[in-house]
Write a structure and sequence with these properties.
By secondary structure, the protein is an all-alpha fold. The chain has 17 helices and no strands.
């Protein structure tokens, strides 16, 4: 029987979302043309940035999960991810996927692993929170090149984003805020002195393939169907928040308030508005880094729509995002002068805002990557993911050999 507190919590959340829906409908009816333009902006972001950046990796993840590769990698990396991050070895695939493809792919993978019974709900929640990153396409092509007009600054923002995310995961692990996980969901193949580690890895991969049992045609169809459904949910949130941000910013005429409001609600529109602010490049980099670390309320709801149906909460996400934002802002301020000194002329010294960004209207959002840029970044992301996974495997094998000796 549900407790009174849980029933009251569900009732309050239902009333809150119901009231928000009514207000949204009223705003759309009051200004239908403006709402239509804002929804078109959100649709452009989803179709030209989110969809092509995520679909290949979502489909790939479903295939490698069924092939047993992720579980085999988890057996190999278990001691090191537990020691450093307090996470199961399966995080050795989820976190690199979040780094390269972005947080929706990582959250979907964490949910699949929990549904397969390989991690606890708390482990899945923590893996998704630790792997909550913006994609390289967003940071380098969209923000760096399109919004700010400086690809080098986009690369710097990407490095800061990654370092701050790792620092957040390590800080929470060492700070003792993460309880030890239950062992009943851990991998059934634990390394022992009688079997080599590679034997255990391939044994776990075979077991995963036998448990799945689908043909490749069936697997591919299921992977595409599930991935498109996930992307449709994400697109719905982006469209709704595009309308909400436009309606709310009309009520706050102050430009700073608009930038703060947009950043708190949605990542793409928040960083676009931030790039139009008249700030020194160092402060602009710190501000955008903080927004990237926070991720936006829209991103949190996207992750919730992926994790909640699987029975996974998002209680730790707020803490992760706040620490990530603080670390990213601090790193940007600390690294700006050293990077300017080490790589003179690569970063904007006076103003990092391109003329196109300043003169563009936020409703006429046209600073989107071309299809050629999307293809180039996807190839780079695929190579980076393969390199990170290959490097993780080599390091794990090397450290295990030294440990045996």
């Amino acid at each position: 029987m549900p407790s009174k507190s849980s029933t009251a919590g569900r009732l309050s959340s239902t009333l809150l979302f119901g009231l928000a829906a009514v207000i949204l409908v009223i705003c759309i009816v009051y200004a239908p043309s403006e709402a239509f333009k804002a929804s078109g902006q959100g649709l452009a972001i989803w179709w030209r940035i989110v969809f092509p950046a995520l679909l290949p990796f979502l489909v790939l993840t479903e295939i490698v999960l069924a092939s047993g590769f992720v579980r085999g990698l988890g057996v190999l990396l278990e001691p090191f991810t537990r020691r450093i991050l307090g996470l199961p070895g399966l995080a050795g695939y989820v976190i690199p996927l979040g780094l390269i493809a972005g947080f929706p792919a990582a959250a979907a993978t964490a949910a699949s692993l929990y549904q397969q019974g390989k991690v606890t709900s708390k482990e899945a929640e923590r893996m998704a929170a630790a792997a909550h990153f913006g994609s390289p396409m967003l940071l380098t092509v969209v923000i760096g090149t399109g919004f700010i007009g400086s690809p080098a600054l986009g690369l710097l923002l990407l490095g800061i984003h990654w370092l701050a995310g790792f620092g957040t995961a390590v800080t929470l692990r060492r700070g003792g805020t993460i309880p030890d996980s239950s062992s009943r969901f851990r991998s059934s193949s634990t390394p022992s002195v009688n079997k080599g580690i590679l034997h255990l890895v391939f044994s776990e991969m075979r077991r995963a393939q036998e448990e799945d049992g689908r043909s490749f045609g069936k697997l591919l169809g299921d992977a595409v169907s599930k991935s498109v459904q996930t992307l449709m949910n994400i697109g719905g949130y982006i469209l709704i928040f595009a309308v909400v941000i436009h309606v709310l910013t009309r009520a706050w005429p102050s430009f700073l308030s608009q930038a703060l409001l947009s950043g708190l609600l949605e990542l793409h529109l928040g960083t676009y508005t931030a790039a139009k602010m008249a700030l020194p490049p160092s402060l602009l980099a710190a501000w955008i880094s903080a927004l990237l670390g926070w991720g936006g309320l829209c991103a949190l709801l996207q992750v919730r729509s992926i994790l909640y149906p699987a029975g996974i909460g998002i209680r730790s996400f707020i803490l992760y995002r706040m620490i990530h934002a603080a670390y990213a802002c601090l790193l940007a301020l600390l690294l700006w002068k050293p990077v300017m000194r080490w790589f003179p002329g690569t970063l904007p010294a006076a103003s990092g805002i391109s003329t196109a960004s300043v003169n563009s209207d936020i409703i006429g959002y046209t600073l989107l990557p071309t299809w050629e840029q999307i293809g180039d970044v996807l190839r780079l992301q695929s190579l980076l993911l393969a390199a990170i996974l290959a490097g993780s495997i080599c390091i794990a094998l090397l450290l295990r050999r030294r440990k045996v000796r």
